[in-house]
């Protein structure tokens, strides 16, 4: 007969070990009452007990030799059972409140004599599983997790129940051979059902809102914090639902606006786009349609070409001729640097579309346009960083020859000529923007002056790509629409609005973190985007295959289409001030 000498865990209610003996009448009555009809922790298909009084009190009873040693053990255990009978009757109700908890560590608990005597074979999982009874609901072994270590400690919570006769009969032939004993020891213990109606022993002791190496909270504080956590989860789910609903509503409103504006575009603007420049009621209405971003996609390329024009009289065969010259320079070895810079720029152009990167469907067309522009009417080929973005927007709406003609005229007639050319002219535009910033947002200007933040940190990347490298494609396309209508002043107005949107993040004294905001790598916004896209792993790492685009970070920081154009409507802009500043700083351009 086997007894358990291990100390009992405090969390189990400090139940006393009782060794049951089939020769003690009072012990038999306690160990084997009449089986109940059902038990809350017992499966419905559990086999009924064959005998009300099992002949053995534990899995080791079938293997213990009968003799004087057994008589003395029985006498000692009988006296201990009689002495603790009153305590068992008193704490019967308390024991019923405890539940059998198993974390399923992969092997059944062993008695102390089995660990000390390797010659004995382990009982089978079937034989070691005690039957359930109402008075012995806490007799199943409880697995307790030690917070200070990662090991599992199996402690008995009461006297072991007697094994069923059929299970004991099955254990005898299995333990007769070493192979059967090894297979029985390797078999996992059966999982036990845990009720969810009331807290388990572990849930009563371990705090769910505090780390394990700290003392547990009071129960009232624990319940309060769990309630607050549930409220935060509910609020987060509600906020996500509201964002999805708002996005769906905006999409439906935009679709309705496009449908309502289509007849006006077809009947009035497309035949003569200059009608929007007339200072009449009809002209102002049509101009507002242009600002609202309702330009039909099918006519965008045609309208862009009309707005840009062909003031340089670039011939229809200019694209082919520029390509032939590029091929001659390539064979002479004078085009390697230009192609390398253009290829790097193309790789970062609108990556969410997957249309311009290496091997994509429009990669070769874009490279041909950029290389042709680099050699067109230039004695020395050169490629400016950022040119791929306006070229890609044109190529999405035109054929390559048309896009090349528009690109040559657009760069030559706009401020892009300075940003793709001489550094002195870029500095002049920086001075113009500083004056505009000081007038519109004096706090940001004073902060930038104190931290020596020059416009080259943010204005040059924004304007050289026409915001295509930082804002979503729909917003960048809408900005391009109005830029062709309004002229050079409009991108500078957009830059002022973007600084207003990013203002809460622009007072960081750390220049590296401030530069990360402009580059679209701000840690806070980046973490939120990764969380929303499910790129954060359980161990705190980041999914290496996940990718976060710069426009997603800018959107998280507030640079949405609605907010940007609402800011443009609120901005107090005077075109006369812009013209005066440009004339002062760049008299040769005017």
TrEMBL record:
Q: Which organism is it from?
A: Rhodotorula diobovata
Q: Locate the region Disordered.
A: 1-198
Q: Tell me which PANTHER family the record gives.
A: RAB GTPASE-ACTIVATING PROTEIN 1-LIKE (PTHR47219), TBC1 DOMAIN FAMILY MEMBER 12 ISOFORM X1 (PTHR47219:SF15)
Spans of biased composition, class Polar residues? Answer: 72-82
Name of the protein: TBC1 domain family member 14
Provide the GO MF annotations for this entry: GTPase activator activity; small GTPase binding
Enumerate the transmembrane spans. none
Question: In which domain of life is the source organism classified?
Answer: Eukaryota
Rab-GAP TBC domain boundaries: 294-487
What InterPro entries does this protein's entry cite?
Rab-GAP-TBC_dom, Rab-GAP_TBC_sf, Rab_GAP_TBC_domain
Residue spans of biased composition, Low complexity class: 118-143, 154-166, 174-192
């Amino acid at each position: 007969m086997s007894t358990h000498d291990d100390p009992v865990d405090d969390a189990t209610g400090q139940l006393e070990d009782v060794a049951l003996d089939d020769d003690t009448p009072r012990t038999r009555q306690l160990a084997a009452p009449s089986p109940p009809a059902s038990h809350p922790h017992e499966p419905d298909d559990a086999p009924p007990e064959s005998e009300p009084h099992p002949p053995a009190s534990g899995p080791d009873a079938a293997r213990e030799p009968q003799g004087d040693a057994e008589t003395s053990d029985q006498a000692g255990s009988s006296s201990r059972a009689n002495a603790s009978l009153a305590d068992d009757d008193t704490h019967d109700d308390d024991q019923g409140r405890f539940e059998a908890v198993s974390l399923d560590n992969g092997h059944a608990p062993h008695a102390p004599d089995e660990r000390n005597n390797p010659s004995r074979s382990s009982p089978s999982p079937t034989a070691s599983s005690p039957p359930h009874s109402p008075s012995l609901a806490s007799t199943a072994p409880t697995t307790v997790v030690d917070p200070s270590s990662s090991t599992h400690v199996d402690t008995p919570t009461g006297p072991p129940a007697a094994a069923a006769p059929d299970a004991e009969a099955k254990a005898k032939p299995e333990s007769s051979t070493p192979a059967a004993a090894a297979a029985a020891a390797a078999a996992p213990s059966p999982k036990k059902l845990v009720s969810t109606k009331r807290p388990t022993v572990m849930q009563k002791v371990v705090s769910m809102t505090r780390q394990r190496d700290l003392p547990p909270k009071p129960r009232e504080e624990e319940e309060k914090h769990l309630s607050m956590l549930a409220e935060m989860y509910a609020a987060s789910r509600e906020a996500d639902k509201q964002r999805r609903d708002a996005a769906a509503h905006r999409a439906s409103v935009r679709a309705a606006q496009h449908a309502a504006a289509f007849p006006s575009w077809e009947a009035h603007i497309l035949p003569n786009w200059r009608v929007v420049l007339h200072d009449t009621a009809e002209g102002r209405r049509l101009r507002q349609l242009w600002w609202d971003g309702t330009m039909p996609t099918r006519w965008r390329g045609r309208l862009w070409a009309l707005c840009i024009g062909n003031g340089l009289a670039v011939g229809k065969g200019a694209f082919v001729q520029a390509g032939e010259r590029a091929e001659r320079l390539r064979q002479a070895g004078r085009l390697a640097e230009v192609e390398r810079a253009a290829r790097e720029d193309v790789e970062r152009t609108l990556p969410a579309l997957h249309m311009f990167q290496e091997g994509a469907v429009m990669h070769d067309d874009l490279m041909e346009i950029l290389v042709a522009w680099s050699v067109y009417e230039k004695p020395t080929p050169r490629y400016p960083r950022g040119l791929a973005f306006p070229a890609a927007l044109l190529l999405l709406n035109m054929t390559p020859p048309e896009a090349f003609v528009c690109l040559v005229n657009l760069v030559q007639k706009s401020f892009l000529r300075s940003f793709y050319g001489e550094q002195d002219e870029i500095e002049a535009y920086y001075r113009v923007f500083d004056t505009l910033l000081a007038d519109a947002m004096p706090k940001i200007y004073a902060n930038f002056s104190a931290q020596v933040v020059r416009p080259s940190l943010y204005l040059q990347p924004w304007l050289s790509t026409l915001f295509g490298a930082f804002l979503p494609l729909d917003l960048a396309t809408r900005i391009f629409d109005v830029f062709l209508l309004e002229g050079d002043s409009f991108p500078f107005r957009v830059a002022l609005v973007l600084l207003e949107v990013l203002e809460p993040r622009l007072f960081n004294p750390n220049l590296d973190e401030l530069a990360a905001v402009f580059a679209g790598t701000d840690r806070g916004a980046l973490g939120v985007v990764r969380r929303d896209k499910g790129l954060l792993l359980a161990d705190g790492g980041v999914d290496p295959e996940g990718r976060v685009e710069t426009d997603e970070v800018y959107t998280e920081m507030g640079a949405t289409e609605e907010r940007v154009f609402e800011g443009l409507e609120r901005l107090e802009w005077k075109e006369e001030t812009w013209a005066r500043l440009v004339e002062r700083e760049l008299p040769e351009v005017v």
